[in-house]
Amino acid sequence: MIDRNHHICILGLGYIGLPTAVMFANYGFRVTGVDVNQRVIEQLRAGTPHIEEPNFFELFQNVSGKSLTYETAPVAADTYIIAVPTPVHADHSADLTYVVAATRAIVPHLQKGNLMIVESTIPPQTTDGIVADVLREAGWQAGEDILLAHCPERVIPGKIIYEIVHNARIVGGVNEQSSRVAADLYRTFVEGQVLETTAINAEMSKLMENTYRDVNIALANELVKISSVLDINPLEVIRLANHHPRVNILQPGPGVGGHCIAVDPYFIVEKAFQQTPLIQTAREINESMPDVVVSQIQRLTATVAQPKIAVFGIAYKGNVGDWRESPALKIIAGLQQAGIEVAVHDPLVVDRMKDFELVSAEAAAQNSDLLVVLADHQLFHDTLSETLLATMRQARILDTKNFVKLSPESSAELINFNHLFRA
Ligand code: SAJ
Fold this sequence. Notes:
With 423 residues, this protein is of the alpha/beta class. Helices cover 37% and strands 14% of the residues. The longest helix is centred in the middle third of the chain and has 28 residues, at 199-226. Ligand SAJ is lined by residues 121, 154-157, 209-210, 213, 217, 250-251, 253, 256-258, 260-261, 316-317.
């Protein structure tokens, strides 16, 4: 049984690591949050966290500077949790630099009986492989001297605090004792089932969750492509099919973004290239959607001498400000390469973009020939007023997210994926 004097050291204070640190501290543990980014540590010590999530701040205030403290390097502890990023290289292989660096940073502090948990999303065979190897190089035998497990996270931005408690958790140890001890640690605050398995099954189950979603979205996107040769309405077909009690086809879109769904399938492909034609093809279909959108924008404005395109939403999905791996960036680049004027508006994105500036809704819409919605931010329902649309040269909207609802008396033309190739 885990006693409350148990000291937990969490490496990586991003949107997984920091809420995890705050949660363990709120449940009575002493927690040291570690991040190599000095600015992050300074912000946290100043009581101004870089995470904005419902119900997070009060939990943060309960413990920050008290049972939760911050360092830029690991300290001696009983349990180490690694929650650092696992980006992909240009060839789509997993970049485990941060996971290996975090493991190496912990090694000098290890004592027999410590527990190490990797929460980062990692390819199959990583926990038993490269992580256990780093420990072995330092003289520690994973599963014996040091307990080692993988416990992937699957919270959704915007619902992190609810889901980190209520979602089921999968805990995969390098041996049964590792699974059990790690699972008992999570059982101190997780109200969902905590399911024990092997490390590789835990790695693969996480990847399959996101790969399932990517393949499903690819099926929806392929249905849109079918509508270029069959006179069907894909969104209506999906709506109707999903009335079946055991069918849940997801939504087509301008592409799949973010650093999860768009990335995780490649971690499986990397380990089983010959055995994954379906997963690879789904990735290709989703990666092809930005070009489909660009070509349809060009077709829809072909009769305009020098069209101006207003792009609304560059975040990788609605109601977030995260634009990493967003298909919108590929669509904007495609339009710019075709010499088409683009004006971009996304009020949730605070960063300065490299290849274009973010402007107001009014500046983007004014004198534009087509307004393209690429992220379904709720606030766009108000932004896309008749007054704004009246400032366009042609009041035409291409809605790639099945999101826009115009009033019956609107004079604007609404194009969505129900008739993308026939407008
Ligand atoms: N998308 C579609 N059509 C859909 C749903 C999503 O085109 O029907 C697109 C979105 O626009 C976005 C991308 O897919 O560009 C990913 O969005 P998402 O909402 O599917 O997922 P993420 O990346 O924000 O979060 C996912 C979640 N995984 C699952 O739903 C299985 C979340 O639970 C995970 O914790 C997260 O990945 C992660 O970190 O792995």
